[in-house]
Amino acid sequence: MNDLHRRNPCRLPVLLMIAVSTVIGLSVLWEFKLEGWVMHWLALPYDADFEDAERWRFVLTSTGFSLISLIVPTILLRRLIANAQSSFRRLKQAQAQTETLATYDSLSGLVNRRIFMNMVRNQLGLRRPAAVMLIDLDHFKAVNDQHGHAAGDLVLFEIARRLESIADDNGGVAVRLGGDEFCLLFLNFKHQTELCQIAEAVVVQLSAPLSSAVEPSALGATIGISRSWTDAQEASALLHCADTAMYRGKKSGRSTFNFYDSEYERQRRAQADLELSLKRAVEEDEIVPYFQPIVALPSQEVVGFEVLARWLKPDGSTSTPAEFIPVLERLGLIPVMTRSLIRQACRAANRWDDRLRLSMNVSATMVTDVLFPDQLLNQLREEHFAFHRFEVEITEEALVGNLDAAQRNLSKLHDHGITVALDDFGIGYSSLYHLTRLSIDKIKIDRSFFEPGQTDHLPMVEAILGMARSLKMQVTAEGVEEFHLPHLPSWLANSGCNYAQGYLYGRPKPASSLFCYTHSSFVQQAC
Ligand code: C2E
Ligand code: CA
Ligand code: CA
Q1: Which regions in the chain score pLDDT beneath 50?
Q2: pTM for this structure?
Q3: Residue 213: predicted pLDDT
Q4: 517 DSSP assignment
């Protein structure tokens, strides 16, 4: 096409010259020779006595007109052809450009997402194998933030060249999916060990220093790998599997690679569902207080209840704290749940005998929160619940993180008449330092001391009781059960233990079921 265009301007004048010479030649030939012969041959009358001048005038006139009628359309036609040619050329260029844009990513020059998806779709449509290695750069955002997008583009270009070379070495295609997300596509079966080697090469090469002088001077990559023969037979599902595997790597420390694992994905989905349900549960008061009686010794009369959280699920089942408290901790929802439980528990307890007390478990983050004492005191005021009827149970783990804050908060509560109990005593730090430095009013001896066959623990219980007596603290024994009868309750009472709690006196129950307890007339009265 270009050659033709280049030759055209030279050829045209020559052609014109030939045309002009031919016309003139033919006219001369006709006028001076052929005319007489033809007329003679046709047996027509012919006057051959024309002056030469007359003949030349005819030749020039007819040639002139012939040339004009030849040149003008030729020039017009030539312009028309030139215009058509240039439009055609422009169209071709635009078409080529569109094809490049539609196939390749303009920044990196790698195959783009659309073509990648088509390639995978075609391959899987033909029931042939495909493996996707999704690569997400680590710390790329820092490059853009610190050096601007132009520097970021240079880095992406450099990374693309490294991936291209790995793809070439291993019979794959390098793809830029968008942003700092790349992919290597293999359209053949690759053994797991081979994929591992390629992924390792990617991690190593993408962690190597960048020639574009930027900070951080080296990035890193987190990789997720999926395979059509084990994970998914549909293009977007295969990419999603690689994405899930990559996400797992991001969570577990980056610069690593993972294969898609359906069991991990199932657990992750279940966890996400649980988190969503728990958020709703807290908002809609599905988490309710159950009440477990605490009895005074030796009378064994109920003097109060420990509030224990239960999740009443919409499907009618009940979930215990071990299943949801750690998740709520992670979601930062423990304060909201505790507030809701306090409100519900106080409203129930306000209908009981006003000597009955409530004991509430308070988590580590709340105990050390500077706002906690005032928020609790205000809530108890709002609920018209006397401070001296309220007790907070804390564990030693809650104290070690920020002992000073815990000390300030607990002494403020203690000063307002709220009892502070140290829960699960004997299994954690069991530190004398904690007991003496903090405003602790009560110790709850962990139930593991009273487990069946643990009679050798009883001397330790005696020691704790002796220590508490010296420090003027009260003691509750947790986990007193039916099988401890008849000895443990009387032994505890004789050893100076003030309170007992456990299945012997009642299991945790909702407020509406408290009449079920038979061990104490106090409970009957309360209901
Ligand atoms: P905890 O504070 O030590 O609560 C006592 C646990 O022992 C309760 O389990 C109770 O049902 C169980 N228990 C009571 N008596 C007996 C007995 O005689 N034998 C046996 N085997 N177990 C007995 P639960 O309700 O599952 O609570 C477990 C833990 O969850 C609690 O231990 C507490 O640390 C935490 N928890 C419960 N409710 C809340 C809450 O509202 N807030 C916070 N932060 N933690 C809570
Ligand atoms: Ca407790
Ligand atoms: Ca306990």
Answers
A1: 1-5, 516-527
A2: 0.70
A3: 59
A4: -
Among 309, 328, 331, 329, smallest CA distance to 319 is for 309
Nearest to 259 by CA among 235, 277, 232: 232
pLDDT computed for residue 216 by the predictor: 66
Give per-residue pLDDT as tens, 400-435: 888 999 999 999 999 999 999 999 999 988 888 888
d(CA 370, CA 300): 38
The ligand with the least distance to the CA atom of 392 is 2
Token readout for 424 is 């699960």
Nearest ligand 1 atom, CA 504: 18
Token reading at 154: 């240079």
Cβ(489)–Cβ(301) below 8 Å: no
Q: What is the structure's pLDDT at 240?
A: 95
502 C-beta closer than 6 A to ligand 1: yes
Q: Is the CB of 341 under 6 A from ligand 1?
A: yes
DSSP string of 405-451, one letter each residue: HHHHHHHHHHHTT-EEEEEEETSS---HHHHHHTT--EEEE-GGGGS
The long-range contacts involving 53-59, CB below 8 angstroms and separated by at least 24 positions, are: 55/31, 58/27, 58/31, 59/24, 59/27, 59/28, 59/31
Residues 343 and 379 sit within 8 Å (Cβ to Cβ) = yes
The verdict on domain 293-302+346-526 having CATH code 3.30.300.130 is no
Coil, strand or helix at 186: strand
Q: What is the pLDDT of residue 198?
A: 98
Give me the CATH topology for the region 113-260: Alpha-Beta Plaits (3.30.70)
User: Residues near 368 by Cβ (< 8 Å), separated by ≥ 6?
Assistant: 398, 401, 402, 405, 406, 409
Q: Which mutation among 308, 344, 392 tests ligand 1's pocket best, with the greatest number of atoms within 8 A of CB?
A: 308
- φ/ψ of 191, rounded to 5, equals -70, 155
Per-residue confidence (pLDDT) for residue 523, from 0 to 100: 47
Q: Which amino acid is at 417?
A: G
Of the candidates 57, 156, 44, the residue with the CA atom closest to the CA atom of residue 105: 156
Q: Residue 152: which residues within 8 A CB-CB, separation 6 or more?
A: 140, 143, 144
Is 348:294 a contact under the CB 8 Å cutoff? Answer: no
Instruction: Please state the domain extents for the chain.
Output: 2-103, 113-260, 293-302+346-526
What is the C-alpha separation between 385 and 383, in angstroms, rounded? 5
Measured distance CA(410)–CA(172) in Å, rounded? 64
- Provide the b/e sequence for 113-130 (b: ≥16 CB within 10 Å): eebbbebbeebbeeeeeb
Q: How far is the CA of 424 from the centre of ligand 2 (A)?
A: 7
The confidence score (pLDDT) of residue 287 equals: 98
